[in-house]
Design brief:
The protein is an alpha/beta fold and 329 residues long. Helix content is 34%, strand content 18%. Helix 1 crosses helix 2, helix 2 crosses helix 9 and helix 5 runs antiparallel to helix 9. It is globular, with a radius of gyration of 19 Å.
């Protein structure tokens, strides 16, 4: 595998792969700059896409940017490049989340390159999964993937799953009496053919999945009380297979590690034939996020709840054109 020349097409292709990453409400809150003289990508947040009501500290925004960072690393390895990745490299520039320098030395990371086909196949699935259990060896591989990025992943025991589901019901009840909490969803959902077909960000109604008429899977209903013509209903799994992704500490650098770990897990799960979705609803509440961890676990802070299983893979959500998120110097 030899490195490709660094021309505008290559730079654009690498960033296009990066921006296929998941982000809260598909806000795509990232900006890339490529510095030709040093063959370095810089990653910064697009704070105009922050969600002050549901993500006031920008933790979820940071996770999304880090997932895009991981995809960039994967795409670079697939293109034959070794990379030097640095998180928060400049104390004087706190919004510089990371730099990725294409070194061309040492050879590409083949384990990363192997994940590349999953980038275009990974889609959030808001559909029912089967009750087929995830094989132990696959679960272990996913936990190892998180460790490789400096995070932790655990499959909670039955009592813990019950508690996590209770947290979802709790936050849904809170939302019902605080309609202002629905404002971010209203701003980032696209309902109706005209809006959905023209969307370049947010969640279009064709990606909502069916309305839940039964089951206990933690699948957020982005329609709320708004009608979506033609939307069907379905029964979801009774015993959802959940995993917790977390870190020992809760600083910005930990969020950047967690976001990369999250995407590494999602891509590897996709290669193993699993469908995936993310559940952050209860984690948006400080008290419920504290309760999400197992008190006897070494995981200090839960960063994301993952739902895994076998079922429909979901559909691709729209993406912003690369020129809107990339500057080349």
């Amino acid at each position: 595998m030899s490195a490709q020349p660094i021309d505008t097409t290559t730079i654009t292709d690498l960033v296009a792969a990066a921006t296929a990453a998941p982000s809260m409400h598909n806000a795509q809150p990232w900006r890339f700059r490529y510095v030709s003289g040093t063959r370095t990508f810089e990653l910064r947040p697009d704070l105009s896409r922050a969600m002050t009501r549901t993500d006031p500290d920008n933790r979820a925004l940071c996770l999304g940017c880090a997932a895009a960072l991981f995809n960039l690393r994967v795409a670079a390895a697939h293109a034959g490049w070794d990379v030097d990745t640095r998180l928060l490299p400049s104390p004087s520039d706190p919004d510089l989340y990371a730099t990725v320098r294409l070194t061309g030395t040492g050879g590409p990371d083949r384990e990363l390159a192997r994940l590349f086909p999953a980038i275009s196949r990974r889609h959030t699935s808001r559909h029912p999964f089967t009750e087929q259990p995830i094989p132990r060896e696959v679960a272990d591989a996913l936990c190892d993937a998180a460790r490789q990025e400096g995070a932790q992943m655990a499959f909670p025991d039955a009592w813990h799953v019950e508690a996590l589901l209770d947290h979802i019901y709790d936050v849904e009840g809170r939302d019902s009496v605080r309609p202002e909490r629905f404002e971010d969803i209203q701003n980032w959902t696209r309902i109706g053919p005209q809006e959905a077909e023209a969307a370049v960000d947010g969640i279009p109604d064709y990606a909502f999945g069916p309305r839940k008429s039964g089951g206990r899977a933690p699948v957020r209903d982005f329609a709320g009380r708004r009608p979506v013509p033609g939307r069907t209903a379905a029964v979801f799994e009774t015993v959802p297979q959940l995993a917790l992704l977390g870190t020992t500490n809760d600083r910005r650098v930990d969020w950047l590690r967690a976001g990369q770990a999250m995407e590494r897990v999602l891509l590897l799960a996709t290669l193993h034939g699993l469908s995936t979705s993310l559940s952050s609803h209860s984690l948006e509440q400080h008290d419920l996020r504290e309760l999400a961890r197992d008190p006897v676990s070494a995981m200090g802070f839960v960063q994301m709840v993952l739902r895994l299983g076998y079922g429909p893979t979901g559909v691709a959500s729209p993406r912003r054109p690369v020129p809107e998120v990339l500057d080349i110097d």
